[in-house]
Automatic annotation (TrEMBL):
Keywords: DNA-binding, Repressor, Transcription, Transcription regulation
This protein's encoding gene: rbsR
InterPro entries linked to this entry: HTH_LacI, LacI/GalR-like_sensor, Lambda_DNA-bd_dom_sf, Peripla_BP_I, PurR_sensor_dom
Name the UniProt record assigns to this protein: Ribose operon repressor
Transcription regulation among keywords: yes
Domain of life: Bacteria
Any Pfam family the entry gives: LacI
Domain HTH lacI-type: start-end pairs: 2-56
Gene Ontology molecular function, alphabetical: DNA-binding transcription factor activity; transcription cis-regulatory region binding
Length: 333
């Protein structure tokens, strides 16, 4: 394999000149630049990313810890992160935690050993990463995405889930419903908790009775929505409308309704949350609360790069505004 010294020898220049041509960080005359590029092409020389990262003290690599889930929301967020990294000249290393603290620590150590410039964390673990792991490495800039499951000195980017829960519930009330149920997500996760609180607030403001049997806490997964909907349908007086804490649970609820021989929205109306790519292709298309997933990924990457360049800046919480997407899954009286 050719080295920079081989390129310099063939081009008749110093290794520093070859470096300047490759990195374009200092003026080199056009004639010399052509000689160096010809030598690079002739020798099929590839610059060492490792050597460059050691010299620049920057790998242009971002690590991301992500909980594995069947919920398409996560894949759609990662898509936005990957696109933003590519557009900004960074590579992304993605590690799944499987919702397991031990695996999270293992993945964290792997990313730090690879000298990532910063970390994006989007995990469900309530307990934070091992302090022993972090102590072995210099402080790495961190941005928490969607929720902050544990104490962190990094930045946090999330949507206004309380407002989104209010908007969804208010929409059902204004459609004429009074028997409204909520399939809420796991309450140890701040977005799920906030969406549930938004539901409670809108019901209270609207003067609508809140029945204990109509509140079910689930897991943000398809199966959770399916099981929760079956519980609601087995009640002596089932609800007329459902606010599902995310679209995955709404999809599961659709299946439970279908298996009972009922129809959305003729027999029961549903509104979801997240606006995943599948939502407009449901039958009928799902009314939902749009969470700007691409913007979440873009702002997370931008904030992390800013943090890498400004390590002393105060940590911040950036909040994205949810938006109602009206389709055909809610019947209006």
């Amino acid at each position: 394999m050719a080295t920079m010294k081989d390129v310099a020898r063939l081009a008749g220049v110093s290794t520093s000149t070859v470096s300047h041509v490759i990195n374009q960080n200092r003026y080199v005359s056009e004639s010399i630049t052509i000689r160096v590029k010809n030598a690079i092409e002739e020798l099929n020389y590839a610059p060492s990313a490792l050597a460059r990262s050691l010299k620049m003290n920057r790998t242009n690599t971002i690590g991301m810890l992500l909980t594995t889930s069947n919920n398409p929301f996560y894949a759609e967020v990662v898509r936005g992160v990957e696109r933003s990294c590519y557009e900004r000249g960074y590579s992304l290393i993605l590690c799944n935690t499987e919702g397991d603290l031990q695996r999270m620590n293992h993945s964290l150590e792997t990313l730090l050993q690879k000298r990532v410039d910063g970390l994006l964390i989007m995990c469900t673990e309530v307990q934070g990463p091992s302090k022993n792991v972090l102590a072995r490495y210099p402080a790495v800039p961190t941005v928490m995405m969607d929720w902050s499951p544990f104490e962190s000195e990094g930045d946090i980017i999330q949507d206004n889930s309380f407002l989104g829960g209010e908007i969804a519930t208010r929409y059902l009330i204004e459609a004429g419903f009074s028997r409204i149920a909520c399939i809420a997500g796991p309450q140890d996760k701040s977005p799920a908790r906030a969406r549930h609180q938004g539901f409670i607030q809108a019901m209270t403001d609207g003067g609508i009775n809140i029945y204990d049997d109509y509140i079910i806490f689930s897991d943000f997964e398809f199966a959770g929505g399916f099981e929760s909907m079956n519980k609601l349908l087995s009640l002596p007086t089932p609800p007329e409308a459902i606010f599902a804490g995310n679209d995955a649970m709404a999809v599961g609820a659709y299946q439970a309704i279908y298996q009972k021989g009922l129809k959305v929205p003729d027999d029961i109306s549903i509104i979801g949350y997240d606006d995943i790519d599948l939502s407009p292709y449901m039958i009928p298309p799902l009314t939902t609360i749009h969470q700007p997933k691409d913007k979440l990924g873009q702002q997370a990457v931008d904030q992390l790069i800013y943090r890498m360049d400004n390590p002393e800046a105060n940590a911040s919480v950036l909040v994205l505004t949810p938006e109602l997407i009206e389709r055909q899954s809610v019947k209006k009286y």
